[in-house]
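FW: tagging you since you asked about this chain on Friday. Here's the raw sequence from the shared folder, copied in full. Didn't touch anything.
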Amino acid sequence: MWNEPRPPNAPARVWRDWVLVAVLAPLAVLEGLLRTDLPAPVVSVGITLALLPTLLWRRTHPLLMLVIIFSVTNVAPLAAGGERPETYTMAFALLLVYSLFRWGSGREGAIGLAIMFVSVTISMAFHRLVPADAIAAYAVMFSAITLGGTFRYRSRARMRELDQVKLLEREQLARDLHDTVAHHVSAMAIRAQAGLATSASSPDAAADALRVIEAEASRTLAEMRAMVHVLRRNQPAELAPNPHLADLQDLADTDGPGPSIDVEVRGQVDDLPPSIGAAIYRIAQESVTNARRHARHATRIEVRVAADDTSVRLRVSDDGESGPARPAGSGGYGLIGMIERADLLGGTCEAGPGPDRGWTVIAVLPRTGAAT
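HL: got it, structure written out here
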Protein backbone atom coordinates (compact mmCIF):
# COMPACT_ATOMS: atom_id res chain seq x y z
CA MET A 1 0.00 0.00 0.00
CA TRP A 2 2.89 2.36 0.75
CA ASN A 3 5.56 0.99 -1.58
CA GLU A 4 5.45 3.82 -4.11
CA PRO A 5 6.81 7.37 -3.70
CA ARG A 6 3.70 8.83 -5.26
CA PRO A 7 0.52 7.05 -6.32
CA PRO A 8 -0.11 7.23 -10.06
CA ASN A 9 -3.58 8.58 -9.44
CA ALA A 10 -2.44 11.60 -7.42
CA PRO A 11 -3.95 14.50 -9.37
CA ALA A 12 -2.74 18.06 -9.66
CA ARG A 13 -4.75 21.00 -8.39
CA VAL A 14 -8.39 20.55 -9.31
CA TRP A 15 -11.30 22.93 -9.47
CA ARG A 16 -12.84 21.50 -6.28
CA ASP A 17 -9.88 22.77 -4.26
CA TRP A 18 -10.25 26.25 -5.74
CA VAL A 19 -13.96 26.21 -4.88
CA LEU A 20 -13.12 25.07 -1.35
CA VAL A 21 -10.73 27.99 -0.86
CA ALA A 22 -13.24 30.43 -2.37
CA VAL A 23 -15.95 29.24 0.06
CA LEU A 24 -13.79 29.07 3.21
CA ALA A 25 -12.22 32.52 2.79
CA PRO A 26 -15.44 34.53 3.29
CA LEU A 27 -16.51 32.14 6.06
CA ALA A 28 -13.30 32.89 7.94
CA VAL A 29 -13.91 36.63 7.59
CA LEU A 30 -17.50 36.23 8.79
CA GLU A 31 -16.31 34.23 11.76
CA GLY A 32 -13.88 36.98 12.71
CA LEU A 33 -16.67 39.55 12.56
CA LEU A 34 -19.33 37.56 14.41
CA ARG A 35 -17.46 35.56 17.05
CA THR A 36 -17.03 37.44 20.29
CA ASP A 37 -14.92 34.76 22.00
CA LEU A 38 -12.24 34.60 19.32
CA PRO A 39 -8.86 35.74 20.72
CA ALA A 40 -6.99 38.24 18.55
CA PRO A 41 -9.60 38.10 15.78
CA VAL A 42 -7.52 40.03 13.27
CA VAL A 43 -4.50 37.77 13.76
CA SER A 44 -6.63 34.62 13.85
CA VAL A 45 -8.49 35.43 10.63
CA GLY A 46 -5.28 36.57 8.95
CA ILE A 47 -3.51 33.31 9.76
CA THR A 48 -6.49 31.30 8.55
CA LEU A 49 -6.63 33.18 5.25
CA ALA A 50 -2.87 32.84 4.79
CA LEU A 51 -3.04 29.06 5.28
CA LEU A 52 -6.05 28.44 3.04
CA PRO A 53 -3.92 28.19 -0.17
CA THR A 54 -2.30 25.05 1.24
CA LEU A 55 -5.45 23.27 0.09
CA LEU A 56 -4.44 23.90 -3.53
CA TRP A 57 -1.29 21.77 -3.18
CA ARG A 58 -2.63 19.14 -0.80
CA ARG A 59 -2.72 16.49 -3.54
CA THR A 60 0.75 17.00 -5.00
CA HIS A 61 2.71 18.09 -1.88
CA PRO A 62 0.67 16.82 1.09
CA LEU A 63 3.56 16.56 3.56
CA LEU A 64 4.88 20.05 2.85
CA MET A 65 1.43 21.55 3.27
CA LEU A 66 0.98 19.67 6.57
CA VAL A 67 4.36 20.93 7.84
CA ILE A 68 3.41 24.50 6.95
CA ILE A 69 0.05 24.45 8.68
CA PHE A 70 1.25 22.73 11.88
CA SER A 71 4.33 24.96 12.09
CA VAL A 72 2.32 28.14 11.70
CA THR A 73 -0.35 27.13 14.20
CA ASN A 74 2.28 26.33 16.83
CA VAL A 75 4.15 29.61 16.31
CA ALA A 76 0.97 31.69 16.04
CA PRO A 77 0.53 32.16 19.83
CA LEU A 78 3.68 34.31 19.85
CA ALA A 79 1.93 36.78 17.56
CA ALA A 80 -1.30 36.69 19.57
CA GLY A 81 0.09 37.45 23.01
CA GLY A 82 0.19 33.85 24.17
CA GLU A 83 -3.34 33.05 23.05
CA ARG A 84 -3.88 30.31 20.53
CA PRO A 85 -5.70 31.97 17.62
CA GLU A 86 -7.86 29.18 16.30
CA THR A 87 -10.90 29.73 14.13
CA TYR A 88 -13.52 27.12 13.44
CA THR A 89 -12.60 27.48 9.78
CA MET A 90 -9.17 26.05 10.60
CA ALA A 91 -10.85 22.65 10.69
CA PHE A 92 -9.83 22.44 7.04
CA ALA A 93 -6.45 21.26 8.40
CA LEU A 94 -8.04 17.82 8.69
CA LEU A 95 -8.22 17.75 4.91
CA LEU A 96 -4.43 18.03 4.82
CA VAL A 97 -4.16 15.07 7.21
CA TYR A 98 -6.54 13.11 4.99
CA SER A 99 -4.60 14.11 1.85
CA LEU A 100 -1.29 12.96 3.30
CA PHE A 101 -2.55 9.42 3.77
CA ARG A 102 -4.59 9.48 0.57
CA TRP A 103 -1.86 10.60 -1.85
CA GLY A 104 1.42 10.71 0.13
CA SER A 105 4.11 8.05 0.20
CA GLY A 106 4.76 5.76 3.16
CA ARG A 107 7.80 7.79 4.22
CA GLU A 108 5.76 10.99 4.10
CA GLY A 109 3.02 9.37 6.17
CA ALA A 110 5.49 8.37 8.90
CA ILE A 111 6.98 11.88 8.98
CA GLY A 112 3.50 13.39 9.09
CA LEU A 113 2.52 11.19 12.05
CA ALA A 114 5.61 12.35 13.95
CA ILE A 115 4.85 16.00 13.20
CA MET A 116 1.26 15.68 14.42
CA PHE A 117 2.36 13.90 17.61
CA VAL A 118 4.99 16.57 18.34
CA SER A 119 2.48 19.35 17.64
CA VAL A 120 -0.07 17.99 20.11
CA THR A 121 2.68 17.35 22.69
CA ILE A 122 3.91 20.95 22.41
CA SER A 123 0.38 22.22 22.91
CA MET A 124 0.01 20.11 26.06
CA ALA A 125 3.45 21.14 27.38
CA PHE A 126 2.61 24.82 27.21
CA HIS A 127 -0.80 24.27 28.84
CA ARG A 128 -2.68 25.27 25.73
CA LEU A 129 -4.30 21.86 25.50
CA VAL A 130 -5.69 19.84 28.37
CA PRO A 131 -5.40 16.02 28.27
CA ALA A 132 -9.08 15.55 27.42
CA ASP A 133 -8.76 17.89 24.45
CA ALA A 134 -5.54 16.13 23.39
CA ILE A 135 -7.34 12.78 23.33
CA ALA A 136 -10.12 14.33 21.25
CA ALA A 137 -7.52 15.82 18.87
CA TYR A 138 -5.86 12.45 18.43
CA ALA A 139 -9.21 10.78 17.78
CA VAL A 140 -10.14 13.32 15.10
CA MET A 141 -6.71 13.10 13.44
CA PHE A 142 -6.73 9.32 13.36
CA SER A 143 -10.23 9.40 11.90
CA ALA A 144 -8.91 11.54 9.05
CA ILE A 145 -5.92 9.19 8.67
CA THR A 146 -8.20 6.15 8.53
CA LEU A 147 -10.44 7.80 5.96
CA GLY A 148 -7.49 8.73 3.75
CA GLY A 149 -6.03 5.24 3.97
CA THR A 150 -9.38 3.65 3.18
CA PHE A 151 -9.92 5.71 0.05
CA ARG A 152 -6.32 5.05 -0.99
CA TYR A 153 -6.85 1.30 -0.68
CA ARG A 154 -10.16 1.41 -2.58
CA SER A 155 -8.61 3.46 -5.37
CA ARG A 156 -5.70 1.07 -5.75
CA ALA A 157 -8.01 -1.95 -5.68
CA ARG A 158 -10.12 -0.44 -8.45
CA MET A 159 -7.01 0.36 -10.51
CA ARG A 160 -5.92 -3.27 -10.18
CA GLU A 161 -9.33 -4.43 -11.35
CA LEU A 162 -9.25 -2.05 -14.31
CA ASP A 163 -5.77 -3.27 -15.27
CA GLN A 164 -7.00 -6.86 -15.06
CA VAL A 165 -9.94 -6.12 -17.35
CA LYS A 166 -7.68 -4.42 -19.88
CA LEU A 167 -5.20 -7.29 -19.75
CA LEU A 168 -7.92 -9.87 -20.36
CA GLU A 169 -9.17 -7.85 -23.34
CA ARG A 170 -5.63 -7.69 -24.73
CA GLU A 171 -5.29 -11.45 -24.31
CA GLN A 172 -8.52 -12.08 -26.19
CA LEU A 173 -7.47 -9.76 -28.99
CA ALA A 174 -4.07 -11.46 -29.15
CA ARG A 175 -5.77 -14.84 -29.55
CA ASP A 176 -7.91 -13.50 -32.38
CA LEU A 177 -4.90 -12.01 -34.12
CA HIS A 178 -2.86 -15.18 -33.60
CA ASP A 179 -5.51 -17.32 -35.26
CA THR A 180 -5.79 -14.84 -38.14
CA VAL A 181 -2.05 -14.85 -38.75
CA ALA A 182 -1.99 -18.65 -38.60
CA HIS A 183 -4.68 -18.72 -41.31
CA HIS A 184 -2.64 -16.45 -43.59
CA VAL A 185 0.55 -18.46 -43.08
CA SER A 186 -1.28 -21.71 -43.85
CA ALA A 187 -2.60 -20.21 -47.09
CA MET A 188 0.91 -19.10 -48.03
CA ALA A 189 2.29 -22.59 -47.39
CA ILE A 190 -0.41 -24.24 -49.52
CA ARG A 191 0.16 -21.81 -52.39
CA ALA A 192 3.92 -22.30 -52.18
CA GLN A 193 3.50 -26.08 -52.41
CA ALA A 194 1.19 -25.69 -55.40
CA GLY A 195 3.65 -23.34 -57.10
CA LEU A 196 6.52 -25.75 -56.61
CA ALA A 197 4.47 -28.62 -58.00
CA THR A 198 3.48 -26.72 -61.17
CA SER A 199 6.60 -24.62 -61.73
CA ALA A 200 8.09 -26.98 -64.28
CA SER A 201 4.99 -27.60 -66.37
CA SER A 202 3.14 -24.29 -65.88
CA PRO A 203 5.26 -21.21 -65.14
CA ASP A 204 2.18 -18.98 -65.23
CA ALA A 205 0.55 -20.95 -62.43
CA ALA A 206 3.72 -20.61 -60.38
CA ALA A 207 3.69 -16.84 -60.96
CA ASP A 208 0.05 -16.66 -59.84
CA ALA A 209 0.98 -18.58 -56.70
CA LEU A 210 3.77 -16.10 -55.96
CA ARG A 211 1.34 -13.19 -56.33
CA VAL A 212 -1.07 -14.82 -53.88
CA ILE A 213 1.78 -15.49 -51.47
CA GLU A 214 2.86 -11.84 -51.70
CA ALA A 215 -0.67 -10.62 -50.91
CA GLU A 216 -1.03 -13.04 -48.02
CA ALA A 217 2.38 -12.00 -46.69
CA SER A 218 1.35 -8.31 -46.71
CA ARG A 219 -1.82 -9.08 -44.76
CA THR A 220 0.15 -11.23 -42.34
CA LEU A 221 2.64 -8.43 -41.69
CA ALA A 222 -0.23 -6.03 -40.99
CA GLU A 223 -1.71 -8.43 -38.47
CA MET A 224 1.70 -8.99 -36.87
CA ARG A 225 2.16 -5.23 -36.40
CA ALA A 226 -1.14 -5.23 -34.51
CA MET A 227 -0.06 -8.19 -32.38
CA VAL A 228 2.99 -6.39 -30.96
CA HIS A 229 0.65 -3.88 -29.34
CA VAL A 230 -1.18 -6.40 -27.23
CA LEU A 231 -0.28 -8.83 -24.48
CA ARG A 232 -0.91 -12.54 -24.29
CA ARG A 233 -0.33 -14.92 -21.42
CA ASN A 234 0.76 -18.49 -21.89
CA GLN A 235 -2.74 -19.93 -21.78
CA PRO A 236 -4.49 -22.42 -24.09
CA ALA A 237 -6.08 -20.73 -27.08
CA GLU A 238 -9.82 -20.93 -27.60
CA LEU A 239 -10.87 -23.71 -29.95
CA ALA A 240 -13.89 -21.82 -31.30
CA PRO A 241 -13.35 -20.01 -34.63
CA ASN A 242 -12.90 -16.25 -34.55
CA PRO A 243 -16.15 -14.31 -34.81
CA HIS A 244 -16.65 -11.95 -37.74
CA LEU A 245 -19.25 -9.58 -39.11
CA ALA A 246 -21.26 -12.38 -40.69
CA ASP A 247 -21.92 -13.66 -37.17
CA LEU A 248 -23.69 -10.45 -36.15
CA GLN A 249 -26.98 -11.88 -37.35
CA ASP A 250 -26.64 -14.55 -34.67
CA LEU A 251 -27.20 -11.82 -32.08
CA ALA A 252 -30.67 -11.23 -33.51
CA ASP A 253 -31.48 -14.94 -33.30
CA THR A 254 -31.09 -15.03 -29.52
CA ASP A 255 -33.94 -16.96 -27.96
CA GLY A 256 -35.63 -16.19 -24.68
CA PRO A 257 -37.38 -13.21 -23.16
CA GLY A 258 -36.12 -9.70 -23.61
CA PRO A 259 -36.09 -6.99 -26.25
CA SER A 260 -35.94 -7.86 -29.94
CA ILE A 261 -32.62 -7.31 -31.72
CA ASP A 262 -32.42 -5.81 -35.19
CA VAL A 263 -29.10 -6.06 -37.07
CA GLU A 264 -28.25 -4.11 -40.21
CA VAL A 265 -24.90 -3.99 -42.05
CA ARG A 266 -24.26 -1.43 -44.79
CA GLY A 267 -21.24 -0.90 -46.98
CA GLN A 268 -18.47 -3.15 -48.22
CA VAL A 269 -17.38 -5.38 -45.34
CA ASP A 270 -16.24 -8.53 -47.14
CA ASP A 271 -12.61 -7.41 -47.34
CA LEU A 272 -12.28 -6.17 -43.76
CA PRO A 273 -9.25 -7.48 -41.82
CA PRO A 274 -10.34 -10.36 -39.57
CA SER A 275 -9.18 -8.46 -36.48
CA ILE A 276 -11.55 -5.58 -37.29
CA GLY A 277 -14.47 -7.89 -38.00
CA ALA A 278 -13.86 -9.78 -34.75
CA ALA A 279 -13.60 -6.52 -32.80
CA ILE A 280 -16.86 -5.17 -34.24
CA TYR A 281 -18.61 -8.43 -33.37
CA ARG A 282 -17.28 -8.57 -29.80
CA ILE A 283 -18.12 -4.93 -29.08
CA ALA A 284 -21.62 -5.44 -30.48
CA GLN A 285 -22.02 -8.64 -28.48
CA GLU A 286 -20.98 -6.94 -25.23
CA SER A 287 -23.26 -3.96 -25.96
CA VAL A 288 -26.25 -6.19 -26.66
CA THR A 289 -25.58 -8.22 -23.52
CA ASN A 290 -25.44 -5.05 -21.41
CA ALA A 291 -28.62 -3.71 -23.00
CA ARG A 292 -30.54 -6.92 -22.35
CA ARG A 293 -29.28 -6.98 -18.78
CA HIS A 294 -29.64 -3.33 -17.78
CA ALA A 295 -32.13 -1.62 -20.14
CA ARG A 296 -35.31 -1.12 -18.16
CA HIS A 297 -38.53 -1.64 -20.13
CA ALA A 298 -36.62 -1.92 -23.41
CA THR A 299 -38.46 -3.52 -26.32
CA ARG A 300 -35.91 -3.13 -29.11
CA ILE A 301 -32.13 -3.14 -29.57
CA GLU A 302 -30.68 -1.86 -32.84
CA VAL A 303 -27.25 -2.92 -34.12
CA ARG A 304 -26.06 -0.83 -37.06
CA VAL A 305 -22.77 -1.29 -38.92
CA ALA A 306 -21.74 1.15 -41.65
CA ALA A 307 -18.49 0.80 -43.58
CA ASP A 308 -16.85 3.32 -45.89
CA ASP A 309 -13.46 3.61 -47.55
CA THR A 310 -11.58 4.48 -44.34
CA SER A 311 -13.50 3.20 -41.32
CA VAL A 312 -16.19 0.96 -39.91
CA ARG A 313 -18.79 2.46 -37.57
CA LEU A 314 -20.82 0.40 -35.10
CA ARG A 315 -23.84 1.80 -33.29
CA VAL A 316 -25.80 -0.21 -30.72
CA SER A 317 -28.82 1.48 -29.13
CA ASP A 318 -31.90 0.49 -27.17
CA ASP A 319 -35.21 2.15 -26.32
CA GLY A 320 -35.06 1.50 -22.58
CA GLU A 321 -35.21 4.07 -19.82
CA SER A 322 -32.12 6.14 -19.13
CA GLY A 323 -31.81 6.23 -15.37
CA PRO A 324 -29.39 5.71 -12.50
CA ALA A 325 -29.78 1.95 -12.89
CA ARG A 326 -27.89 2.02 -16.19
CA PRO A 327 -24.11 1.57 -15.83
CA ALA A 328 -22.44 4.84 -16.84
CA GLY A 329 -19.04 3.36 -17.50
CA SER A 330 -17.79 3.47 -13.93
CA GLY A 331 -20.10 0.82 -12.55
CA GLY A 332 -19.01 -2.13 -14.69
CA TYR A 333 -15.99 -3.25 -16.67
CA GLY A 334 -17.64 -4.27 -19.95
CA LEU A 335 -17.32 -0.78 -21.41
CA ILE A 336 -13.70 -0.58 -20.28
CA GLY A 337 -12.92 -3.76 -22.20
CA MET A 338 -14.65 -2.43 -25.32
CA ILE A 339 -12.74 0.85 -25.14
CA GLU A 340 -9.46 -1.03 -24.68
CA ARG A 341 -10.10 -3.28 -27.68
CA ALA A 342 -11.03 -0.34 -29.93
CA ASP A 343 -8.01 1.65 -28.78
CA LEU A 344 -5.62 -1.24 -29.48
CA LEU A 345 -6.87 -1.30 -33.08
CA GLY A 346 -6.52 2.46 -33.54
CA GLY A 347 -10.21 3.27 -33.06
CA THR A 348 -12.54 4.75 -30.47
CA CYS A 349 -15.49 3.54 -28.42
CA GLU A 350 -17.85 5.56 -26.25
CA ALA A 351 -21.19 5.02 -24.54
CA GLY A 352 -23.85 7.18 -22.96
CA PRO A 353 -27.57 8.02 -22.87
CA GLY A 354 -29.27 8.22 -26.25
CA PRO A 355 -30.62 11.51 -27.62
CA ASP A 356 -34.21 10.56 -26.80
CA ARG A 357 -34.02 7.61 -24.44
CA GLY A 358 -32.13 4.41 -23.88
CA TRP A 359 -28.41 3.81 -24.10
CA THR A 360 -26.09 4.08 -27.10
CA VAL A 361 -22.65 2.58 -27.77
CA ILE A 362 -20.68 3.93 -30.73
CA ALA A 363 -17.40 2.40 -31.93
CA VAL A 364 -15.35 3.59 -34.91
CA LEU A 365 -12.48 1.42 -36.18
CA PRO A 366 -10.15 1.99 -39.14
CA ARG A 367 -10.52 -0.45 -42.03
CA THR A 368 -6.78 -1.12 -41.98
CA GLY A 369 -6.82 -2.25 -38.36
CA ALA A 370 -3.59 -0.43 -37.62
CA ALA A 371 -2.92 -0.38 -33.87
CA THR A 372 -1.68 2.75 -32.22
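FW: The domain at 245-366 is CATH 3.30.565.10 (Heat Shock Protein 90).
HL: agreed, and The beta strands are 260-266, 300-307, 311-318, 348-353, 359-366.
FW: great, closing this out.
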